[in-house]
Each structure stands twice: as C-alpha cells, then as structure tokens.
Amino acid sequence: MFHRRALLGVSAAALAAPRALRAQGNWPNRPIRLIVAFAAGGAADSVARVLAPRMAEKLGQNVVVENRTGGSGSNGGAAVAQAAPDGHTLLWDASSHIVNPSLLRGLSFDYTTAFLPITLAATFPQVLAVKADSPARSVSDFVALAKQRPGTLNIGTQGNATAGHLALAQLQRLAGIEVTHAAYRGGADAARDLAAGVLDGTFITALSAGPIADSGRARILAVATDARLPSRADVPTFAEAGVPGLLIAEWCALFAPAGTPTAIAERLHATMTAALSEPEARARLDQLVAVPVGSSPAEFARFVQEGRATMATLVREANIRLE
C-alpha cells in the first residue's frame, strides 16, 4: 500500500509539472491588466501608456492600462497583491512604493513581500525652482534667504510624502534651513501658483517646472540628480550647487505579484527593456522629461530595498505624515 500511494503521488506530481510548464509556455494567453496606482494623465500613467502598446506588440496580447487611484498608491497595490501570480495582472507603481511602508498602517498586504520587482522603467528628476522676482539666483542664495527668514518661505510640492516633499525635507536637513511646505494635488497646480507669485518656490518635476521656467515666470536653481539633464544643461546638480547628497527622483516601475514564475518574470523584463530601447518610445519619454532606465530584476530589487530603508529614516527624521 505504501508503494502504491507513493507511486500515485509521483504520478500526480508528474502530471502537474507539465501542466504548469505548459501554462508558462502559453503565457500570455489573454489580455494583461497593467494596474497603474495613480490617476490618468500623471507622469507615471503617461509613461505606462507609452510603453503598454509596445509591450502588447511584443507579447502578442493586449496590455490594458487600468488606473486604480487612492491610498497614496496602495489601492492599486492591493489589487495586484491579491491577483493570481500568473503574469496577467501587473502593477505599475511609483516612488510611493518605498515610502508607503513607513506611512501607512492597516494595509491588507505587505509591500516587502507581496511583489516581485521586474524593472525600474524611468525616473522623473526633481528640481528646485523659485518665482521670477525671487532674489535667489542660486541654491546658495536660496539657503541664505531661508536662513534670514526661517519658516517664512512657502515651497510647494506635488503633495504630502511625494518625491518633491521628500526632496524638500532632505534639502532642509542637509542645508540646515526651515521653510513652510505647501502640499498640492500635483506638480501642475504647484507650478501654476509659482508662476502667479503665490509661492516662493517649488520642489517638483522638471516636466512640471519646465514650461513656466521657459516662459520666464520661474527660475530653476538645481536638479536632484547625480548628473545634469541634457535638456537643462545650464542647471547645476545640487552637488555642484554646494549641497551634495540630495538625490531624490520620482520614478515608475513594473512589479508582478510575488510567486510569479521566473520564466514569466524574465520575459516581462526582456519585453520592457526592449520597449524602452525603441527610438520612438525614447523620444516620447524625452518629451516627458523622463529618464529611461530598464534595470535588471536583481538591480531593481536592491534599489527598492535600499530605498525603503533610506525613506524610512527620512520620514522619521522629518516627521512626515500623510494628511
């Protein structure tokens, strides 16, 4: 009886293995849902919509972009965390992915275990800009002005706990200054008020700040990247401007549910990097002032882990809260 049961067990496993392999081999066998954790029209959503049709072409199935907003991106995360790990439901998330674990409580999933990182697709550089009539012509001028008038400069960002807010908090910590944070519902709104002179400055994406700077209604002082932007070659990095260590960018990336088969994850990565390398896609990303990346799954997993630890420290030290 023992041997009969053992043989039955082996037979069941032998039958199950080919079915699993066939399922992976046939992937994708229906449209793929790409859950974007943010509203349509934003930076992350715009990049997803550039890449989705190119992914579809390479995979032979439609890639349907579906916006699941709310909860600082956690609503979209929850939808994918609960999905079957079969490669047909994917998460398109942003930098809140590494911030939310330090800010949100009572989630139905664990950010650290629920997802499989596939690739960091693109980054959105953050810039410090001031209103046109500001006496600050450089970052050192801005720091001096903030020290002369502690707590009185109103600096807008895309919102609480966004990359702009975190970059502003880091600038205050590194430069030893105090300003008043004005949280908006997006970079475009903050840029509008900066152009109108309502704000003294903003820490938002280069995409949002660019038009008002080009029209002379604002001035960009520095970019929070390790190298100058080709499209803004005259704008120094913060390190060049005397504040080294300020490196924060918004980003967007592809995740799959934890447990997704390795073969599917590898094909997803190859598909995404191929889409990112297409000249037409890169030209469109350049228009969005998005820097394409296409990191390996291992590199991206390390980036997420290290970023989560860094953001936890910054959130704690700056006493950042979601409102």
Kindly list the characteristics that best describe this protein:
ten-stranded mixed β-sheet; 10 strands; D-Maltodextrin-Binding Protein, domain 2; single chain; 11 helices; alpha/beta; 2 domains; 323 residues
Characterize the largest beta sheet: strand count, sense, and whether it forms a barrel. 10 strands, mixed
What percentage of amino acids are in beta strands?
15-25%
Number of helices: 11
The CATH architecture of the largest domain is 3-Layer(aba) Sandwich
CATH class of the largest domain: Alpha Beta
Shape: globular
Radius of gyration: 22 Å
Order of helices and strands: HEHEHEHEHEHEHEHEEHHEH
How many discrete structural domains?
2
What is the terminal separation in angstroms? 65 Å
Low-confidence stretches: 1-23
Output the structural class.
alpha/beta
User: How many strand segments?
Assistant: 10
Overall pLDDT, averaged? 91
Note down, in words, how this protein is organized:
The protein is of the alpha/beta class. It folds into 2 domains: 162 residues, D-Maltodextrin-Binding Protein, domain 2, CATH 3.40.190; 109 residues, D-Maltodextrin-Binding Protein, domain 2, CATH 3.40.190. Helix content is 45%, strand content 20%. The protein contains 11 helices and 10 strands. Strands 1, 2, 3, 4, 5, 6, 7, 8, 9 and 10 form a 10-stranded mixed beta sheet that branches. Helix 4 crosses helix 11 and helix 6 crosses helix 11. The protein is globular. The N terminus is likely disordered.
